Amino acid sequence: MKPLKTLGILLLVAVFCALVAPTAVADDFNRKTKVTFSAPVEVPGVGAQTLPAGTYVFKVMDSMSDRHIVQIMNEDESHVYTTILAIPNYRLKTTDKTVITFSERPAGQPEAIKAWFYPGREWGEEFVYSKSRAIELAKETNEPVLATPIALDAAPIEALKTAPIVAVAPTGEPVELSQVVEPPPAEAAPVAAPAPEPVVVAAAEPVAAPAAELPKTASSLPLIGLIGLLTLCAGFALSVFSKRSV
Fold first, then answer.
1. pTM exceeds 0.70, yes or no
2. Phi and psi of 88, rounded to 5°?
3. Number of domains composing the chain
């Protein structure tokens, strides 16, 4: 019975993991986040759209290389308040909690949501407002705001994917997006390896070649013959001289 009981426990654990794992992966993929606001906040949408204090769900519907589509819903996700166009915004330091930044507004007015950063991610969502509202916010906050000329309240999601995005200054003039969106840090250029130092080889001192021996051009036999002939002549002279003396 004990092996059967152990097998049953393992099966229950496996079923539990199979049910829980997909939800965790899906939440990380679409960055589903529950956010509770203690005061009203303004979000991109129809004119100056304000969400009352309460709990809301943020989700990334679609994620492309240069822009994202974000939806804000009620807590049980039965109603979509707004669909927002956003572009990636970079932060140098990640956090383990959700971070939402706001543009400062005059006293008595709801803060306008600016960007949303998911826990553990360097890239967040910088929200884009309709151009007319973006110019108003830029004047109120005295800083550039992301804008798009299309009507966000009536634009289908496919239109948001290709909508032009600009940054408007408090004067209403367009400015560089880099004044609103933090670009990622430039990668350090690879340091070239130092060129190897040339190896200097000392020139070897010239070594005198040994004198070549002269080739032998004659044999010693004639010299020996000459010596023998002289010896014979000397013997003959001595013999003659000795006979005269007697």
1. no
2. -60, 140
3. 1
